[in-house]
Design brief:
This protein has about 200 residues and is α/β, with parallel strands linked by helices. It has a domain of about 120 residues: Glutaredoxin, CATH 3.40.30.10. Helices cover about 30% and strands about 15% of the residues. The protein is built from 5 helices and 7 strands, in the order αβββαβαβαββα. Strand 6 and strand 7 form a beta hairpin. The longest helix is centred in the N-terminal third of the chain and has 20 residues. The radius of gyration is 39 Å and the shape is globular.
Length: about 200
């Protein structure tokens, strides 16, 4: 056989062997193209996750009057105390009155109640203290007062007529009324005990 034919057969055999090797199974250990990460994150609610606080709903009716200004006569009212007895503004004639509008679900009021309790214990009977809760059921208010061990005089304005008449648009709302039934100061905020003491001087 001529040398050139031997060389040709040798080359063709090499090509066939190379093609057979390249068509074999894929090697193992090669990473797949499917990602193992990158999934959309999920929110896990656990002990460390803060619970959203529901936003309180405004209770009708909305205030139709402006709050009494300094020097104006306090507006008469008639409400039911937690003990079921009627409470009127006239009952406080001749005595200074610290009148506060609050609701048990408001965080500002919840923090303010201990201050009011302290003022009541220290100032009564020289200063009369009355909290008017509006828009809540009697059982809710009574349970809250008992739970917090509060004994300060509290009355209910379930239909919100008194709070509307006093122009209450936020809580706590404070009125300092002198012995003649005249408003001497008005504040819409939670006051410190020292601030309350200073304002009480205006009605004594």
């Amino acid at each position: 056989m001529r040398p050139q034919w031997v060389l040709l057969f040798f080359c063709m055999g090499g090509l066939l062997l190379l093609a057979a090797c390249s068509a074999g199974p894929a090697p193992t250990g090669v990473a797949t193209s499917t990602p193992t990460s990158g999934l959309a994150p999920t929110l896990a609610v656990g002990p460390g996750t803060p619970t959203p606080v529901p936003t309180p709903t405004a209770l009708p009716p909305q205030p139709t009057n402006k709050p009494p200004i300094k020097g104006a006569a306090a507006r008469d009212f008639s409400v039911k105390g937690l003990d079921g007895k009627t409470v009127t503004l006239g009952q406080f004639n001749g005595k200074p009155l610290y009148l506060v509008f609050c609701v048990t679900w408001a965080e500002a009021c919840q923090k303010f109640y201990p201050v009011l309790q302290s003022v009541y214990e220290k100032r009564s009977p020289d200063i009369q203290v009355l909290v008017i809760d509006f828009g809540e059921q009697q059982s809710v208010v009574k349970d809250y007062m008992a739970f917090r061990k509060l004994t300060l005089p509290t009355a209910l304005d379930a239909e919100q007529r008194v709070s509307a008449g006093y122009g209450v648009f936020a809580v706590p709302t404070n009125f300092f009324i002198d012995k003649d039934g005249v408003v001497q100061h008005y504040e819409v905020t939670a006051l410190s005990e020292d601030e309350i003491g200073n304002f009480l001087k205006t009605v004594q």
